[in-house]
Amino acid sequence: MRRGFFPFWRLLLFPVRLHIFCALVALAACVPILFPEIAPAAQKESIISIAGSTILSVQGVSTAFVVMAVITHMLRLSNTRAFSQLFQWIAVWSSAILFFILLAIAADVAPPAASDDNTPIQASDTLYTAREQLNGPASLVIPIETRHVSIDKVDETPHLIFLENNHELILKDYLNTSPRWSGQEGDDTFYTKPGHLVMVPPTTGGTPALVHVCFRSMVEGDPLPQGYTLITPGGSFPDTAEGATIPDMALDLGRNHFLLLAWRGSSHRETALRAINAAIAATDERMQPLRESPTQETARRMLQGRTSYPGNTPEFRLSEPLSQDGAYQGELYANPGEPGVFLVYIKDLTSNNTLRLLSFPAQYSDNPQELFRHDIPGSMPHWIRSSAEDSLTNIFPHNTPLFAIRLGPQRQYFGVAFEIWFKPSDVRKNRHLLLRRCYKVQAYDPPAGVEKQPDGSSDTPQA
Most buried one in 8, 54, 291, 395, CB count within 10 A? Predict the structure, then answer.
């Protein structure tokens, strides 16, 4: 053999370095599959396809070489080395599988979409799921963490109890004005109106779970809502057998307010109680600023929330709160740099017809690195709206931050485009398209027998 040529037979007899190289290539190819957001949207499908082909190819090459190495050693009557090569191959790929599992855990891969929610409307449009997390104080979905939550007793609520005992009127005004809590007076619970808060713990065992949360005002002597069990801060949880249904609970704050909590998920008692305690702690934590400064100005700041964020690229977020199918919330982050109005055209992707037209004044500044939060919905004046738009405008109570896109049966998904236009106040300037995002959405189906109220709102039971 000429000097300088690689002895190919050595690769057949000792291919462990090749296995390691192939395993590393396979792991690298898994990255765009597990983290598709890092790939450009236009090339996402092709990149994932290439990554899958790469994984299959390097696995095939590694497998072929270990087979040839085992056969070669056996032909040379070196059975020990043959089995050694086989065990080395198994060890390398077992390690690769372990690293893949760690990557998958870090990626927190979402479960596959339902069959009625993964059919593209137009191949040229990327259809997003309306589950994006909103930042503003009107967001009705809040993630909670349950890993380090104790269930020895019901979590304490020092901020809520202090406000209830010392500043009940301020607490009541805040609850009646906040989009998260408003509309819950009298006999209303989250079963009779949408718009209540939903707290979502981490998914365990593939079973979705959530805690419905709302406040209930009751005077002394009023009975608890039917089916609720009374609990007190620092007290004990009701006794339930493992596997039995977790009861709905009403947390007594000491005077006229109760915090209603309803677990919807697995019947595993520890999992449910951890989520309920985490929801209690999260609710109380959000009342800390009001306790430290119990004034109307503090309540106003809490209701307003953070209004701007660093950035220079406009962004739009759409959320479908888990409390009501077919009801949506939206937030736009933009800074046009001049006064004007944002127009939101919601268009059907199959027909390009405008389903809704929303509007709201623009927040702006001279700082190009500042984006302002704009809460949706807004609505065009009555004299501009079509009859279809008018029928959708007042479905929900006015103090509930929800809007519907189309009336009809639920879980029949269709594609829509949100086109965000900016119309400057200067009449000499033309309006221009700011951004366009496409979503899979469903229609809002009002319960049978529910009619609009004289003010346009309606009682809409939880779906």
Answer: 395
CA distance 102 to 90: 18
- In this model, does residue 7 exceed pLDDT 70? no
DSSP string of 434-455?
Answer: EEEEEEEE--B-PPTT--B-TT
Question: Could you tell me the end-to-end alpha-carbon distance of the chain, in angstroms, rounded to an integer?
Answer: 78
What pLDDT, on the 0 to 100 scale, is given for residue 10? 53
DSSP 8-state assignment for residue 366: S
Alpha helices in 76-199 (DSSP H): 79-107, 158-166, 168-177
What radius of gyration do the chain's Cα atoms show? Answer: 29
Encoded tokens for 347: 């268009």
Nearest by Cα to 438 from 313, 345, 309, 359: 345
Query: Per-residue pLDDT tens for 394-405?
Result: 778 777 788 999
pTM of the predicted structure, to 2 decimals: 0.68
Please give the structure tokens belonging to residue 32: 């765009």
The ranges assigned to domains in the chain are 8-109, 141-302, 307-441
| Each residue's pLDDT tens digit, 264-291 | 888 888 999 999 999 999 999 999 999 9
Is the distance from CB of 424 to CB of 343 less than 8 angstroms? no
Name 304's Cβ contacts closer than 8 Å, sequence gap at least 6. 137
- Give the tokens for residue 119: 């059919």
CB 171, CB 163: distance < 8 Å: yes
Q: Specify the pairing of strand 248-252 against strand 257-264.
A: antiparallel
Pick the CATH number of 307-441 from 1.20.1090.10, 2.60.120.560, 3.40.50.2300, 2.60.40.10: 2.60.40.10
Residue with tokens 């300037």: 429
- Cα–Cα dist 192/351, whole Å: 35
Residue 191: name the closest of 131, 248, 134 by CA: 248
* 229-233, 348-352, 395-399: the lowest-pLDDT one: 395-399
Using DSSP's 3-state secondary structure scheme, residue 330 falls into strand
Tell me which DSSP letter residue 381 carries: -
DSSP class per residue in 337-397:
SS-EEEEEEEEETTT--EEEEEEEEPP--S-TTEEEEEEE-----TTT--HHHHHHHTSS-
